[in-house]
Design a protein that fits this description.
three-stranded antiparallel β-sheet, 51% helix, globular
Length: 185
């Protein structure tokens, strides 16, 4: 395995350990996501030496819900996003969910880690890269943007919202507290 792939795998491990922990914060989430995104261009593997058996464990829906609920210590959950920013039509913004983003990223990365830990590094790299393009990459970039927007709204480091509580002075509909998704037009 190349140094770049080893580094990416280590970043995957850090993200998964963090997601499985009982304490989360936006700064760490942002740092872990950026480390993962930075490694994507270097994920390359050929099919040579790939194992025939490619059945590795996946997270169940109940396991996904467990991770989703563990993310409740963030100061916001919902945010507005444009789902297809390159399509110049009049589609309204949709509601993004930071908890869902992180739980979905965790599920995809965890699956690849099961393959890697079973000795199938080629499958792990191919799966991480393909699932990035198809799924978790959108969640990661949306989550980073939402976190950055939250920090832009709190320039003095004082949050606009209580953690998972009511708004103090939510200056925009771009981030909202848990249970109150922003309305779309």
């Amino acid at each position: 395995m190349s140094l770049a792939v080893e580094t990416f795998a280590e970043n995957v491990r850090h993200f998964c350990q963090w997601a499985e922990s009982s304490k989360h914060d936006l700064q760490t989430a942002r740092q872990l996501l950026l480390a993962l995104l930075r490694g994507i261009p270097y994920l390359t593997a050929s099919d040579a030496g790939a194992k025939q058996n490619r059945e590795y464990p996946r997270r169940t829906h109940d396991q996904w819900k467990s991770v989703h609920h563990r993310m409740a210590d963030f100061p916001f959950q919902y945010y507005r996003e444009i789902f297809a920013p390159c399509e110049m039509n009049e589609d309204p913004p949709v509601t993004g969910d930071l908890h869902d983003d992180l739980a979905d990223i965790y599920g995809d990365l965890w699956h690849g880690l099961q393959a890697l830990d079973s000795g199938d590094g080629i499958y792990a790299v191919q799966y991480w890269r393909e699932s990035y393009v198809q799924h978790w990459g959108h969640h990661a970039s949306s989550a980073v943007y939402a976190i950055d927007e939250y920090y832009r709204k709190t320039p003095k480091g004082e949050p606009d919202v209580e953690p998972n509580g009511d708004s103090k002075t939510l200056s925009s509909n771009s981030v909202a507290t848990e249970g109150t998704p922003p309305e779309t037009k």
